[in-house]
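Sequence design from tokenized structure. All designs in this work follow the same two-part layout: the structure record, then the generated sequence. An example of the structure record is given first.
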């Protein structure tokens, strides 16, 4: 951003004003509409302040559509627009200045209070001071005590109706308690608490999903959702801090409004400090700056408001903000420190996350020695290198983050960071191969025996569509791992009945035994799992790119698990990059490989089984006498014995209600050589239709696919 603030030659005012307006509109769009800001708040504030200054110096270039004449972003598409009953204006910012450049960091706040003194013609002005919540502004309109609608600020005149999303937030009352006024418009902030935000980001990191820059960014992105179920899954809260339209008993001060909120059980912003002089104001600001680090939500400043409503009316408004309030923005506390190393953590889903190991430094009241770097793409974007001097701050005053590298302090000989090279292409937890799928930023470990992934892998291994081990869900998997009984899914086959029966699912203080009956179910399920077909085992192993359909096709092509490690068909698929390789490659032609297995699947399977980790899995399975066989082995359909596999080469789709479960019907068809697909195409041979199934039946008729009954299918079997 340096070119925006320190240009070699000053631009003509008209040109610079145009540049700033364009740049600010761009960042408004990123912030308000896309919830994906690209610059820091302080950089945005500097742009905005420069534009305000230039416009005041050159009124001949005034434009009613300038960002300085507006409050925020436009309502986004997809929501109904609501006109605010009373304009929902923003509050002017005043900034804490850099102590290195001034003797009075609070000079702008002092100037604000002095303007109040001048306009009200007295020295002592009663004002309130409260935290500036780092959230999304919202208006809640109650009529006769019932929530009528909720809206975003939008452009200050019109916002988006987000009632369907706000109703999911438990701290927002849908009906007010006590005697409610006939009309009450409450202004406040929707936000994400610090701990919930950190937990959500950690979960997204583990899943290889992009993380949110700060809680406000996460909140804005959540409120943009059209599906309220997705909003309900996010930990949002609401606090009130202002009033809009109102019809009820007279309110004369901010204390009256606070009392009304308490009476109606509407959660309100706290603490609310009262001061009556400039000296008291400066003390209160310092107190709040210290205490805000202990609040449950992110803050970036303090809001100062004249307490008396009559004096507010006397002071009035400017075009986009009231004269009786100001938001004092604290300087983000940033510290320089040295990045000593980068370590790689392996999450429970196999995602490798780089972490900066820092020379300890005090930031925002706590000592910071580690900071997440999220992923390799983020490291490369910031060009972070080991031994760099970096600037650290807490994102939203919560999570330690590397802001940027101090390039002028970079030691000679540092190298760009490569995660793959850093770990030698192997998972630091288990030594298994790592891979990054196309279109994703995260590197993952694909070894189903990886100890770091034990819980999630055991859960997958035992799931119904995998080995169907009854009684082993996430809670049991957590207990097996935490109690030291299992570090990999294959350890399940070493468990005794007694170990399972006495397994403590609770805490040491409040134990909860798994029990004899549950233990028996697991032992019996494990015995049945031993003879489950190869495709179920392949799906259970959770190899990257290998889903249920790919597992079926791989099992058709290979009779036993070790066959995959030296499969000629998989090597041909991996090595031949032609789009029509399956039709032109002489090795592949007789196998008639379906679309479920291609180059990406072949690469993933071969990489795993050729690795040391994959070889260890095969050795361990042999030691445990686990030898799954294919139940649909038919590598070359042209050579099939039609007496034993009468449906070889035929593709079925199932729809409607059958006399037996679909999984059982699917198993029976596949046992006779058929392939069962989930969707109809021109390559489908039969649609097996039970009761219902209208849409698939219609599509089958359009494509000329033969529709058969369950009785006809049984004749084929």
């Amino acid at each position: 951003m340096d070119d925006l603030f320190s240009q070699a030659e000053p631009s003509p005012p008209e040109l610079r004003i145009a540049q700033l307006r364009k740049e600010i509109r761009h960042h408004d769009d990123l912030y308000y509409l896309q919830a994906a800001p690209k610059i820091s708040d302080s950089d945005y504030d500097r742009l905005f302040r420069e534009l305000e200054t230039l416009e005041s110096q050159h009124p001949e270039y005034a434009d009613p559509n300038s960002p300085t004449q507006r409050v925020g972003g436009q309502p986004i598409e997809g929501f109904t627009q609501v006109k605010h009953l009373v304009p929902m204006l923003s509050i002017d910012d005043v900034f804490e200045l850099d102590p290195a450049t001034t003797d009075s960091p609070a000079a702008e706040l002092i100037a604000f209070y002095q303007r109040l003194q001048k306009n009200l013609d007295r020295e002592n002005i009663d004002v309130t001071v409260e935290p500036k919540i780092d959230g999304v502004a919202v208006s809640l309109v109650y009529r006769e005590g019932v929530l009528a609608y909720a809206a975003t600020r939008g452009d200050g005149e019109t916002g988006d109706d987000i009632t369907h999303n706000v109703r999911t937030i438990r701290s927002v009352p849908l009906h007010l308690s006590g005697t409610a006024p006939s009309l009450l418009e409450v202004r406040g902030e929707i936000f994400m608490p610090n701990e919930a935000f950190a937990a959500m980001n950690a979960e997204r990191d583990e899943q290889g999903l992009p993380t949110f820059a700060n809680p406000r960014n996460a909140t804005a992105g959540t409120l943009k959702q059209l599906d309220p179920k997705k909003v309900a899954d996010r930990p949002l809260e609401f606090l009130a801090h202002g009033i809009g339209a109102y019809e009820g008993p007279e309110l004369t001060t901010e204390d009256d409004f606070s009392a009304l909120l308490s009476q109606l059980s509407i959660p309100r912003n706290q603490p609310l400090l009262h001061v009556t002089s400039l000296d008291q104001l400066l003390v209160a600001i310092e107190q709040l700056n210290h205490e805000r680090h202990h609040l449950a939500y992110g803050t970036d400043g303090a809001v100062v408001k004249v307490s008396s409503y009559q004096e507010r009316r006397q002071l009035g408004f400017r075009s986009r903000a009231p004269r009786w309030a100001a938001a004092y923005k604290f300087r983000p506390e940033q510290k320089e420190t040295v990045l000593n190393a980068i370590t790689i953590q392996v999450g429970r889903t196999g995602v490798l996350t780089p972490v900066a190991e820092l020379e300890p430094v005090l930031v925002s009241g706590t000592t910071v020695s580690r900071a997440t770097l999220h992923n390799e793409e983020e490291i490369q974007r910031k060009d972070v290198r080991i031994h760099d001097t970096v600037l650290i701050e807490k994102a939203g005053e919560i999570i330690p983050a590397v802001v940027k590298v101090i390039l002028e302090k970079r030691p000679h000989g540092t190298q760009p960071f490569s995660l793959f090279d850093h770990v030698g292409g192997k998972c630091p937890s288990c030594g298994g191969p790592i891979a990054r799928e196309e279109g994703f930023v995260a590197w993952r470990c694909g070894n189903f025996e990886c100890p770091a992934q034990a819980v999630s892998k055991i859960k997958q291994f035992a799931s119904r569509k995998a080995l169907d081990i009854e009684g082993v869900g996430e809670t049991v998997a957590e207990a097996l791992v935490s109690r030291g009984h299992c570090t990999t899914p294959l350890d399940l086959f070493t468990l005794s009945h007694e170990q399972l029966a006495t397994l403590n699912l609770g805490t040491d203080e409040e134990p909860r035994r798994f029990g004899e009956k549950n233990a028996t179910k697991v032992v019996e399920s494990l015995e049945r799992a031993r003879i489950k077909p190869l495709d179920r085992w392949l799906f259970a192993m959770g190899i990257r790119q290998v889903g249920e359909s790919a597992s079926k096709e791989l099992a058709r092509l290979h009779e036993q698990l070790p066959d995959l490690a030296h499969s000629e068909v998989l090597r041909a698929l991996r090595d031949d990059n032609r789009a029509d390789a399956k039709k032109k490659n002489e090795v592949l032609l007789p196998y008639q490989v379906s679309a479920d297995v291609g180059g990406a699947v072949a690469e993933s399977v071969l990489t795993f089984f050729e690795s040391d980790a994959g070889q260890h899995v095969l050795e361990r399975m042999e030691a445990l006498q686990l030898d799954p066989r294919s139940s649909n082995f038919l590598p070359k359909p042209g050579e099939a014995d039609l007496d034993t596999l009468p449906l070889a080469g035929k593709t079925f789709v199932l729809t409607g209600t059958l006399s037996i479960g679909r999984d059982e019907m699917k198993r029976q068809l596949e046992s006779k050589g058929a392939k069962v697909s989930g969707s109809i195409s021109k390559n489908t041979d039969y649609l097996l239709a039970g009761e219902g199934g209208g849409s698939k039946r219609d599509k089958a008729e359009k494509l000329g696919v033969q529709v058969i009954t369950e009785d006809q299918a049984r004749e084929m079997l």
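The longest strand covers residues 351-363. We note this feature because it recurs in several other targets discussed in the main text.
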